[in-house]
Amino acid sequence: MSTLISRRVVLRPLVREDFPAWSEVRQRNRDWLVKWEPASLAGAPDPVRDRAAFAARCGARDRERQLGTSHGFGLFVDGFFAGELNLSIVQRGPFQSAYLGYWIDQARAGQGYIPEALVLVCRHAFEQLNLHRIQISIIPRNLASRRVTEKLEIRDEGVALRYLEINGIWEDHIRFAITSEEWVDRRDALVATWID
Hints:
Elements: E1 4-5, E2 9-12, H1 19-28, H2 30-34, H3 51-67, E3 71-77, E4 80-91, E5 97-104, H4 113-127, E6 133-138, H5 143-151, E7 155-166, E8 169-179, H6 180-194
Parallel strand pairs: 5-6
Antiparallel strand pairs: 1-2, 2-3, 3-4, 4-5, 6-8, 7-8
Helix pairs in contact: 4-6
């Protein structure tokens, strides 16, 4: 189990014991988050309200981590659950790439926790997992999420039209990316600014 630590945040895989804190944050932030996320599957158990569904979600994430196809992290600030970062759809072979998504408790937003956590995940992805490229896809009107990529100066690769179905609507997304070569060039500055 990978635990990543910087000066203000701890990232670790979620476990079934995290259910009360995760559920409370998700319920309290429902309106803040639902407009940026895929719609829930009709009839599927709701992990926000169902402890067994949350445990199954944690088990699925563990299997994905073991297979190397995804690496999910809970974000903890001062020992309290505050959000998630997910390095998903890890593809090997000539692609060596993954997609990175994130969300944070609205009460913790705007305090630089996500950029700090994102630098931790990039370091892990490029230096431990040996990936070549990470892509972050953001709905254009999600200014808070775009601000994260601006703070870190992650390259804008343009808009993908009707890229993902979000909350029942096919939404355009701006694709941002960083490669291992860019990480090598910028690593020291990013780590000094956000982690050490």
